[in-house]
Design brief:
The complex is a heterodimer. In chain A, 50% of the residues lie in helices and 13% in strands. A 7-stranded mixed β-sheet of chain A has the order 3-2-1-4-6-5-7, sandwiched between helices. In chain A, strand 2, helix 2 and strand 3 form a beta-alpha-beta unit. In chain A, helix 1 runs parallel beside helix 2, helix 5 packs parallel to helix 8 and helix 9 packs antiparallel against helix 10. Chain A is elongated and about 95 Å long. The two termini of chain A are 41 Å apart. By secondary structure, chain B is α/β, with parallel strands linked by helices. In chain B, strand 2, helix 1 and strand 3 form a beta-alpha-beta unit. Chain B has 8 helices and 22 strands. Chain B is globular. In chain B, helix 1 runs parallel beside helix 4. Helices cover 22% and strands 31% of the residues of chain B. Classes of the chains: A alpha/beta, B alpha/beta. Chains A and B meet through helix 3 and helix 6 of A and helix 7 of B.
Chain lengths: 312, 378
C-alpha cells in the first residue's frame, strides 16, 4: 500500500432524499479515505430531506469511530448550491472534496487520481463524466461556455476537489455565491478536468422543488456569469434605436414627398419615432450602466491573480 | 476523628471551602483521591477567569460573572496572567450571535469590548467581527501552592491524600465514613466537591444524582510562535475553537467545541468503554484520572489545529507539546438553563450534606452562602 497522505482532507457531501443509498456510499468513501489519508473528516449536508436520510446518516456515524462526521441540517430546502456552501464553510481540510450528489457514478479510486492531479499544481480539479444525457443541461452549458466571461469552460460534474486557497479566494470575492462551479472557474486559480467513464445511474425523478431551483439557477447564472443577457439586450436596444431612426428618416421622406397617406400621419409618426428613439437610446445607456454596476458589485476585488513568482 | 466539616475533593472548590472554614478555626478535613491537590479539572481546563463573554445570550449570568471576575482578580492576582490581548471573534458563518449583537451585549453588561480589525488575526471573511476584551488566565499550580500554604497556616485543616472512601453512611446526627486505611471520620457537615465524581459519591448514600452527561475532554498545550505569544483567541459562538495562554506556564491551551470532547456518556455515573482498558484504575463507581490513564484516547491535535489554522493567519503559528485529558460533567438543560453555571444542592440538613457542581473556577464564591448560612432544603 502506498504511503498515506498527510494532508488533511474534508469531504463534503450533499444529501437530499437519498436514504436508500447513503450508507453504502458513505462506507465506500470512508474506506477509501482511511486507506489513503491520515487525517480526514466527513461533512454531510442534509438539505431538509423528507425521507429517512437523516436516520441513515446517524446510523452510519454511529458505526465509524476513527473519523469525525459532521452533519449540517438545512433549515428548509435550500438547493444544492447554498447547502454545499454551508458544508464547505464548515470544513477545515487543506483540501476539500465536494460531492454534489451522493449516488456515485465512478470508481472511488478516482478520488486518488484527482487528489494527485491537485498535488501536481491545480487548485481546482473537476471530475467530468464522459457519457452524458440530459439535453437541457447540455444546451445550458453550450450557451454558458459560448458567452462565459472567464473563458473557462463548464460542464456537467458532480464531484471536485478544491484547495483551501480556492475556498479562501472565493470567500474573498464575495459571500453570496450561488453557483459555485462558475465562481471556481472564474476565481483565477488553476483548474484541471479529469474525464472518466461513468456508470449510467438509474435516473431519479426530481421533484418540482428541485426542478424549479435548477431552472432559476440556470437563468441567474447565465445573467451573472456570461454576458449573454447583456449582449442580447444591448444589441436589441441599438437595433431598435436604429430602426426608430430609420422610421424617422422614412417619415421625413414621406412628409416632403409626393404621397401623403393620411393627413397628419407624418408629424405623428415623426413624434413617435423620435420618442421611441429616445427611449431605446436611454435604455442602451442604462443597460451599460447596469452591466457596470453588476461587475462592480460582483467582482469586488480589483484583480484575481493565480500566482506571484520572483524570478530573480 | 470528629470534624466540623468533611470536604470530599481537593480541587479548587474543596480547598476554597476548607480555607474559609479553617480560617474560622473550624476543624476541617479534605479527602483527596489523588496524591496531590488540583490534579484533575481545576488543572485541566482552559484556565480562563471568566468575565461573562461566553454568555452573549444571557445577560444576568454575564453581570454575575463580571462581579466574580473582579473579586477573583483581587483575591488571587498573584497567579494571574494579565499581559496578553484576549481577542473574541465572531465567526462569519455558523455563529449563533452576530458581531453587532455581541458588541451590544458587552456594552450593556459593562464589560470591555473594543473593535479590532478581524483581518489582523484571521483570514479574510472568516470572522465578521473581532474584539479586544478583558479576560485573564490563572495558573493552577500557583493557586494550589497558595491554598496549601494558607491552609497550613490555620492548624485546624488537614488534607488526606490518596483517600479511598470505603464506606459512607448517614447516622442520626452525623455522617460517618471509613477509609481504606481503617480510619474513621465523622462530621455533621459534608461537602461534596468532586466534580466529575459527584454522582459516584451521591450513589454511596443513595441520593438522587445530578442530571449530567459526561464528556472525556482533551486540552492541548502548545508552544506559540512569537506573534501569538501574547495573544489569546476565542472564536464564538458555535462549533469553533480557542487558543489562549495557559496560566503562567508559557504554554497556550488549544481547545475546540467539537474536537475537545472525545466521548460522551449519558448515564448517571460516568461509564465509558475505555474504563475496561484502564487496568483497574477507573470504573463507573470510581473515576480514575484521565490524564494519567493508560487508555486515554489518541490526540485530536490534527483536527483542532486544522480548525485553528483555517481561521488564523499563517503568522500566528503554534506547535504541539502535550495533551491533557479530563472528565467533564455537563449539566443537562433541564437541570440548568444557560444562566446558572453553579448548582449547589442540599441533600440533608443536620446532619448536612451538600453537593456542588460548577463548570467555572471563579464562581467558587457561590459556596459562601451554604458554608456559613447552612444548607437550605430544596
Amino acid at each position: 500500500m502506498a504511503a498515506r497522505e498527510n494532508n488533511f482532507v474534508s469531504v463534503v457531501i450533499y444529501i437530499y432524499n437519498d436514504a436508500d443509498i447513503i450508507q453504502g456510499e458513505l462506507e465506500g468513501i470512508h474506506e477509501l479515505l482511511s486507506e489513503k489519508f491520515v487525517k480526514y473528516e466527513l461533512i454531510c449536508v442534509n438539505d431538509d430531506s423528507t425521507d429517512e436520510s437523516l436516520k441513515q446518516i446517524r446510523d452510519f456515524a454511529a458505526k465509524v469511530n476513527d473519523c469525525p462526521v459532521s452533519l449540517i441540517n438545512m433549515g428548509y430546502y435550500h438547493g444544492m448550491e447554498a447547502a454545499m456552501k454551508a458544508g464547505v464553510d464548515l470544513s477545515i481540510g487543506d483540501f476539500v472534496f465536494e460531492f454534489d450528489r451522493i449516488p456515485v457514478d465512478f470508481d472511488l479510486s478516482l478520488m486518488t487520481d484527482i487528489f494527485e492531479k491537485a498535488l501536481s499544481g491545480y487548485d481546482i480539479v473537476n471530475a467530468r463524466p464522459r457519457n452524458m444525457r440530459g439535453r437541457k443541461s447540455m444546451l445550458f452549458y453550450r450557451i454558458f461556455n459560448l458567452f462565459s466571461i472567464s473563458g473557462q469552460k463548464l460542464g456537467t460534474e458532480y464531484f471536485r476537489l478544491l484547495s483551501r486557497r480556492t475556498i479562501n479566494r472565493v470567500d474573498a470575492i464575495g459571500q453570496t455565491v450561488f453557483y459555485r462551479k462558475a465562481v471556481y472557474s472564474s476565481c483565477g486559480l488553476k483548474m484541471a478536468n479529469i474525464f472518466y467513464e461513468n456508470r449510467m445511474l438509474p435516473s431519479r425523478k426530481s421533484n418540482s422543488k428541485q426542478r424549479k431551483n435548477r431552472r432559476n439557477m440556470a437563468m441567474d447564472s447565465l445573467v451573472l456569469f456570461t454576458d449573454l443577457a447583456y449582449k442580447i439586450s444591448f444589441v436589441f436596444c441599438i437595433l431598435m434605436a436604429l430602426f426608430m431612426l430609420g422610421t424617422g428618416a422614412y417619415t421625413v421622406a414621406v412628409y416632403f414627398g409626393q404621397k401623403r397617406p393620411v393627413e397628419g400621419w407624418a408629424p405623428l409618426m415623426g413624434m413617435i419615432s423620435a420618442g421611441f428613439f429616445g427611449v431605446f437610446g436611454i435604455q442602451t445607456i442604462i443597460i451599460k450602466y447596469l452591466e457596470l454596476i453588476l461587475s462592480l458589485v460582483f467582482k469586488k476585488q480589483k484583480y484575481l491573480i493565480s500566482s506571484i513568482e520572483k524570478l530573480k | 476523628m470528629v470534624y466540623d466539616r468533611i470536604i470530599i475533593g481537593g480541587g479548587i472548590y474543596g480547598l476554597y471551602a476548607a480555607l474559609q472554614c479553617g480560617s474560622r478555626g473550624e476543624r476541617v478535613v479534605v479527602l483527596e483521591y489523588e496524591d496531590a491537590a488540583f490534579q484533575r479539572a481545576t488543572f485541566i481546563n482552559q484556565a480562563r477567569v471568566h468575565m461573562g463573554y461566553h454568555y452573549p445570550r444571557s445577560f444576568s449570568t454575564a453581570a454575575k460573572s463580571a462581579a466574580y471576575f473582579e473579586r477573583f482578580c483581587r483575591d488571587y492576582s498573584f497567579c494571574l496572567l494579565k499581559t496578553f490581548d484576549q481577542i473574541y471573534a465572531i465567526s462569519a458563518s455558523f455563529s449563533w450571535t452576530s458581531a453587532e449583537q455581541f458588541q451590544k451585549f458587552c456594552h450593556s453588561a459593562g464589560i470591555r469590548c473594543e473593535r479590532v480589525e478581524p483581518e489582523k488575526f484571521f483570514k479574510p471573511n472568516l470572522c465578521e467581527g473581532a474584539f479586544l476584551t478583558k479576560e485573564y488566565t490563572f495558573d493552577a499550580a500557583m493557586l494550589r501552592d497558595y491554598f496549601l500554604h494558607e491552609i497550613g497556616q490555620t492548624d485546624s485543616v488537614s488534607v488526606i491524600y490518596h483517600a479511598r472512601i470505603q464506606e459512607l453512611r448517614k447516622e442520626n446526627d452525623c455522617y460517618r465514613m471509613t477509609l481504606a486505611d481503617g480510619s474513621n471520620l465523622e462530621s455533621a457537615f459534608v461537602l461534596n466537591t468532586t466534580y466529575a465524581s459527584v454522582n459516584q459519591i451521591l450513589a454511596k448514600l443513595n441520593y438522587e444524582p445530578f442530571k449530567a452527561k459526561y464528556e472525556l475532554c482533551e486540552i492541548i498545550l502548545c508552544r506559540a510562535d512569537e506573534k501569538l505569544k501574547n495573544v489569546g483567541i476565542t472564536v464564538m459562538d458555535g462549533p469553533f475553537f480557542s487558543i489562549m495562554p495557559f496560566g503562567r506556564t508559557g504554554y497556550h491551551s488549544l481547545t475546540s467545541v467539537t474536537f475537545t470532547p472525545h466521548m460522551t456518556n449519558y448515564d448517571s455515573v460516568p461509564t465509558f468503554p475505555c474504563q475496561q482498558a484502564s487496568r483497574g484504575t477507573c470504573s463507573p463507581q470510581q473515576l480514575g484520572n484521565c490524564n494519567t490513564c493508560p487508555a486515554s484516547p489518541p490526540s485530536a491535535w490534527s483536527y483542532m489545529s486544522g480548525l485553528a489554522h483555517k481561521y488564523l493567519r499563517s503568522e500566528y503559528g503554534f506547535q504541539y507539546r502535550k495533551s491533557l485529558y479530563s472528565m467533564k460533567p455537563v449539566l443537562m438543560d433541564s437541570e440548568i438553563d444557560d444562566s446558572r453555571p453553579t448548582v449547589i444542592r442540599t441533600f440533608s440538613v443536620n446532619p448536612t450534606f451538600i453537593s456542588v457542581l460548577s463548570g467555572k473556577v471563579n464562581t467558587i464564591y457561590d459556596l459562601d452562602e451554604v458554608l456559613f448560612h447552612g444548607g437550605e432544603g430544596e
